[in-house]
Amino acid sequence: MYKRIVNSISQYLGLSKSVYVIFFARIITNMGAFIWPLLTFILTRKMGYSPLTISYIFLVIGIIFLPATILGGILADKFNRKKIIIIFDLSSIFFFMACAFIEPGVLMLVFFALAGLFASMEGPAFEALIADATKPKERDKVYSLTYLGHNFGFIVGAAIGGLLFENYLSLAFIIDGLTTLTSTILIILFVTVLNTDDLKEEEKTFTKIMMKPQEIHFQF
């Protein structure tokens, strides 16, 4: 058991600094993501909505978020990923913080949905930045590590959110905004996009192979 744990951890050693910054940024962001796991409780116990109304709310949010995520992916392909992350994260933080200063109700729900919308639009740029900041051969480990950070932070965040829900809901919104801000600052200051000139020849070749469109042959 001990060897298995050591082997699992050791595979993530020796990666670039940017990878570990992104890993901790993911943990921090998701540790502060108290609200999404508690949304159903907020809608029922704080706002008094019925289960049927809540199902319609989730349906509308899901329909809106889908094209927003697609738009985020288009923007991530055309513009600087860091700038996109900054713009959408700051927009998300603004609406999360605003929720802390209003009573639970329709306006809070709208602000919360807008915060989530901008966070969804930021997602593709964040994923693309991981690829920009890492070497091609280490990306499997990098994505595995960042998902580990996501899950760990989310578990801890949900537990803390449960403690804050009843009497400190406003504080939960503020902490959510602050953790997102901290994560954004870490990415801005310490995540560096790789220059292809700094890669070794075999790494450049691997990159070209990964980026080259593959021909598809059909046999009948």
Task: Indicate the radius of gyration in whole angstroms.
Answer: 20 Å
Q: Give the overall form.
A: globular
By secondary-structure content and strand pairing, the structural class works out as: mainly alpha
What is the CATH level 1 assignment? Answer: Mainly Alpha
The CATH homologous superfamily corresponds to: MFS general substrate transporter like domains
Q: How many domains make up the 3D coordinates?
A: 1
Largest sheet: none
Roughly what fraction of the amino acids lie in strands?
A: under 5%
Helical segment count: 9
**Judging by the overall fold, what is the CATH architecture?**
Up-down Bundle
Low-confidence stretches: 205-220
What report would you give on this structure?
It is a single chain. The protein is mainly α and about 220 residues long. Helix content is about 75%, strand content about 0%. Helix 2 runs parallel beside helix 7, helix 2 runs antiparallel to helix 8 and helix 4 packs parallel to helix 6. The longest helix is centred in the first third of the chain and has 28 residues. The chain starts with a helix and ends in a 9-residue tail after the last helix.
